[in-house]
Amino acid sequence: MKDNFSVSQKGVKTILIGLILMVCGYILMIGGGSSDPAVFNDAMFDFRRLVASPVLVVLGIVIVIVAIMRRPSDKEDKQ
Fold first, then answer.
1. Under a CB-based contact definition with an 8 Å cutoff, are residues 25 and 55 in contact?
2. Is 74:10 a contact under the CB 8 Å cutoff?
3. Which end of the chain has the lower number of beta carbons within 10 A, N or C?
4. Residue of 75, 61, 49 whose CA lies nearest to 17
5. Angle formed at CA 39 by CA 36 and CA 40, multiple of 5 degrees
6. Are the CB atoms for 60 and 16 separated by under 8 Å?
7. Is the pLDDT of residue 74 over 80?
């Protein structure tokens, strides 16, 4: 019986990898606040929050888009 899904099984796995990357990026953005509003905290301007986490989120989005748009090959259709 042939499945009529628009995304192959490999594509679904790739989508899940992209979603996991996005979640990891959002987790890296957490924190950096201060319990005392009168005290400034430089922790919110570190490399992890300004560079690493947005790169992970964008990379995850790109992976999900590529996984959705990629056409399955004939080998994947036969399996």
1. yes
2. no
3. N
4. 61
5. 120
6. no
7. no
Q: Residue 58 is inside which H or E element, if any?
A: helix 53-69
pLDDT score, position 50? 92
- Tell me which residue of 49, 32, 30, 50 sits closest to 40, measured CA to CA: 32
CB 54 within 8 A of CB 25: yes
- In tens, the pLDDT along 3-51 reads 677 788 899 999 999 999 999 999 999 876 777 778 877 777 889 999 9
pLDDT of 79 over the 90 cut: no
How many residues are there in the chain? Answer: 79
**What's the confidence (pLDDT) of residue 36?**
78
What are the phi and psi torsion angles at 73 (to 5°)? -75, 170
CB 64 within 8 A of CB 39: no
